[in-house]
Design goal:
Strand content: 25-35%
Order of helices and strands: EHEHEEEEEHEHEHEHEEEE
Strand order of the largest sheet: 3-4-2-1-14-13
Shape: globular
Mean pLDDT: 97
Radius of gyration: 17 Å
Largest sheet: 6 strands, mixed
Helix content: 10-25%
Number of strands: 14
Length: about 270
């Protein structure tokens, strides 16, 4: 079975539903994972997505902020969401897909962390570090790690590798690429031996971005990007990915999100 997955921080799903419809029409993924939907569950655009052929939806929304949603052409056998750090915000949803052998997809929106990379001075940064710490500890407690068929996707708000940012030395003290964030994200990866799908297709010495700031006058010309969006698989699926693409052109669509969709195809 060939399976196509997209993860995308849409930065308001209602504002950019036309972009979502365009992506679905042109790329026809089996599952689309959205982050930062910025709406409550009852305001999610269910009708438009059903019309596009995506009947199955798991939404964990929040008014005006955050929120994640997973929509699918494949039925779910179960859905759940987890609250991290007792903050009351909506940043995780998981679904179990009705496919042979089963497949669980975790969809995350990790806190951005504000501007000051000091947890004592910046509560947002402390929240981000605590959130990733809870992710690490949660996956450490999972059983059957060698057999689990799971995918973890989302805006993790960390660019961990030197060439995941436009300027490694320049950004070592900038939130999203600081050593403490990178170390924590690596601990999350190690907690379940997650495999970085994007870097299976683009070597670590090559630049790879999924986000370009709105602040740039010409984001494409300056190309000062970061890889904040990720797709990971468990070891049982390490050989499953067959292709990966960052749809950079979507960053140039009218009133675009500052994130580009990331597309992966797996053979299940």
């Amino acid at each position: 079975m060939e399976f196509k997955l997209v993860t995308w921080n849409i930065n308001s799903v209602r504002l950019r539903i036309n972009h979502v419809e365009k992506l679905l029409a042109e790329h026809a993924p089996d599952v689309l994972c959205l982050q930062e939907i910025k709406c409550t569950d009852d305001n999610f655009p269910y009708k438009a997505l059903k019309k596009a052929g995506y009947e199955h939806m798991a939404v964990c929304g929040q008014k005006g902020y955050h929120g994640v949603a997973t929509v699918s052409r494949i039925p779910f056998t179960a859905t759940s969401s987890r609250e991290f750090c007792e903050m009351g915000d909506s940043r995780h949803v998981s679904v179990d897909l009705d496919v042979p052998g089963g497949l669980r997809i975790h969809n995350y929106y990790v806190p951005a962390g504000g501007d000051e990379p000091d947890p004592e001075k910046n509560e947002k940064f402390a929240h981000k570090l605590n959130f990733m710490g809870e992710m690490r500890d949660w996956y450490k407690g999972h059983r059957n790690k060698s057999k689990a068929r799971m995918v973890l996707v989302g805006d993790l708000n960390v660019a961990p590798l030197e060439h995941d940012v436009w300027g490694h030395k320049q950004l070592l003290k900038v939130v999203s690429h600081t050593p403490v964030e990178v170390d924590l994200l690596n601990e999350v990866m190690a907690s379940h031996n997650w495999v970085d799908v994007m870097r299976q297709f683009v070597p670590e010495h090559e630049k790879l971005y999924s986000w370009w700031s709105y602040r740039a006058k010409d984001w494409e010309a300056s190309n000062r990007g970061r890889r904040l969006d990720h797709i990971w698989v468990t070891p049982a699926l390490a050989d499953a990915p067959t292709s990966m693409q960052v749809l950079k052109e979507a960053r140039g669509w009218e009133r675009a999100s500052d994130h580009a969709p990331v597309i992966a195809t797996l053979r299940l």
